[in-house]
Amino acid sequence: MNVTSLIGHQPPVTRCLILTSVLLMVLCSLDVISPFTLYLNWQLIIYELQLWRLVTCFLFFGNFSLQFCWNTYVLVFYCSSLEEIAFHRKSADFLWMLVCGAGMLLVLTYFFGNTYFVSGAMIDLMTYIWGRRNSAARMQVFFFNFRAPYLPWVLAWISLLMGGSVQDHLMGIAVGHTYYFFEDVYPLLPTSKGFKVFRTPRLLKLVCNQSD
Hints:
mainly alpha; Rhomboid-like fold
């Protein structure tokens, strides 16, 4: 299977994430655009209204490198699985999960972070939820064999070996746990009365052609 067909077989939201990250990597590698126009800079966002930075900071994984290939691998094989299985025929719910997660990560970076790109933290968020929703699965990454809930921790450790930031991974895992608790645990408690904090807006479901 070639690269084009591999990407073409991904579910829609994951496919857009992969294509956008690859496009940004190519444009930056060719010096068509600069990474300095993509990173998270609150001064430029607030005072010069460079609002695109709120999005591009999640989509840029760096120039072509081992770390870029690794993050793309995780998107292709784990995040696509999350959308395709746990969110089967619910792309609007998956997209809303990413939007809510991105919002929480932006709040954390505003108050606590020196983070310029939050793409790695977003991957940790997705792998955390994937692991929780596939808790009985056994995983193997390189020489490591472990249960699925430990996946984001293993991936974070591998990323650290490649020069990633501890803070980014901890933020992604914390936000992933927050989403998982309020989406999968809290609604089952008697006191919740079935209330969901991260309920997907009906308009987004209509746009994504998702039925209830």
